[in-house]
Amino acid sequence: MSAEGALGAGRRMAESLMVDSVSVSRPSGAVDPITGKPVTTEVYAGRAKVQTYEAFEKQPELGGGTVTVQRYTVHVPVGAYVPLVNDVVTVTAATLDPGLVGRRYVVSGLLHKSFATSYRLLVDDNNGYGGAP
């Protein structure tokens, strides 16, 4: 089997495991003059898989308090969209864990590679502090 054939089979397998749905929005830099909230644009809506990246969390101080930031990866199909750091991923449906629905993650890194079976987005779950609009 060629590398391309093996990669195609791997991508089909990876996508078969993407049983959740997400919406990805991107801050535009503008602020809504009425609500005062950041204006965002949806750049992807579709299948995904949420995974823990590794046992990692940090607890930075913010405004005199401490918050916990946990790291995950969100996998989306290769070519689904062009991901950028600071995109906001919201889980809209979760087949096997209803507790994922409504979770929001901020993309903090892009894990590109030559033989990717999915786009793996390095994301932070920061409990709504310091990034997610």
Physical arrangement of strands within the biggest beta sheet: 1-2-5-8-7-6
Please report the total strand number as a whole number: 8
Q: What structural class should be given to the helix and strand makeup?
A: mainly beta
Regions with little confidence, pLDDT below 50 for 5+ residues = 129-133
The averaged pLDDT comes out at 87
Tell me what portion of residues adopts beta-strand conformation: over 45%
Give the topology string: H per helix, E per strand. Answer: HEEEEEEEE
Count the DSSP helices.
Answer: 1
Helix content: 10-25%
What's the architecture in CATH terms? Beta Barrel
CATH class: Mainly Beta
Which topology does CATH recognise? Thrombin, subunit H
Tell me the overall shape: globular
Largest sheet: 6 strands, antiparallel, barrel
- Determine the N-to-C terminus distance: 46 Å
What is the total domain count?
1
CATH superfamily: Bacteriophage SPP1 head-tail adaptor protein
Radius of gyration: 16 Å
